Amino acid sequence: MALRERTRERLPPEIFDLPVEKMRGGYYADAYFNHARATLDHDGRHPRVVMQVFQKNDAYLGGVDEAIAILKLCSHDWDVLTVHALYEGDRIEPWETVMTIEGDYTLFAHLETAYLGVLARRTLITTNVVQVLEAANGKPIIFMPARHDHHRVQTGDGYSAYVAGRVVGTPIGVTTDEQASWWGGRGIGTVPHSLIASYGGNTVLAATKFAEWASDDINITVLVDFENDSVQTALDVARALGPKLWGVRLDTSEMLVDRSLWSELGDFKPTGVNERLVRKVRDALDLDGFEQVRIVASGGFTIEKIRQFEERGVPVDAYGVGSSLIRGSNDFTADIVLTDGRPAAKVGRKYKPNPRLELVE
């Protein structure tokens, strides 16, 4: 199915729970946009403009439905504006026009800061997740940045990750219900270190109690690095839970060398979750008859590290990726390119029609 067919239906504006009155009042606008609008109102001037929005990277568009919602709910008269836009997840080229807004500039001048910020953040996340999914060669990714940023960004970031999964055609899991709320999903997670600590550091006991509580639709995955002995702990958990165990998660700190590698130091980087550790855990599980138990790898994984693992055929079944997915920038710019039907762009910019844009109803 083509990408456009998968993403053509836009999210309704109400789902974004925007602070409509404050946004309409200019509270989220850079002051100079409010000043520009006030100047035009004072002068009685209402120029009909075409505002053109773009960015400068090869990227995957995110946030466009939220940007449209800002215009629909927070402009001073949506019905007389004409907006054309691409869709969530569309692949975009440097300088490509992703949205145009046509109408009386004073109706939406105060919204530029907000809709550009939304596009910048969501496109960054969507693009980063697409690249990680592509590096993972179709293996699932668990989107885990929630603890690395403010809770208010969870909702849109989670949806951007979901859009990326639709682009690539690979499942993506998120770790909080808030991240999954726009598409009606829910957060997933493993048996965490905190639960193990709550049972005195006994991973098997914590996993057993978790399995007694968990419903059948939860894929029980257990962190096995608490005692820094991932091979033995993985075996102990697999023996205790049997067919209830979906997977084990390796999360060894970059400051530690797992116990199973202590006798093998010298010809590889032994810290953290590395290739040799993953292979040792896989071999041990297979030898004990637990071939069905998956291995999830997390802790400092980036696009580059995932790509290296995949090139070397490291037997990881899924990756948990955190802070690297929210790093970087993907800035957007908006220019008035036509005023009252005549070219009005600053030097170096011009009106660039894009036949891919579609009218927003």
Q: What this model shows, in words?
A:
This protein folds into two domains: 3-124 and 329-359, Alpha-Beta Barrel (nicotinate phosphoribosyltransferase), CATH 3.20.140; 137-326, TIM Barrel (Alpha-Beta Barrel). It contains eleven helices and 14 strands. With 361 residues, the protein is an alpha/beta fold. It has helices at residues 3-7, 20-24, 31-43, 64-74, 112-135, 154-168, 193-198, 203-213, 230-241, 275-287, 303-311, and strands spanning 48-55, 59-60, 82-85, 91-92, 97-104, 141-143, 172-174, 220-223, 245-250, 294-298, 318-321, 332-339, 342-343, 358-359. α5 packs parallel to α11 and α8 (203-213) packs parallel to α9 (230-241). Helices cover 34% and strands 17% of the residues. The strands form three sheets. The protein has a six-stranded antiparallel beta sheet with strand order 13-12-1-5-3-14. Strands 7-6-11-10-9-8 form a six-stranded parallel beta sheet. A two-stranded antiparallel ribbon has the order 2-4. α9 links the parallel β8 (220-223) and β9.
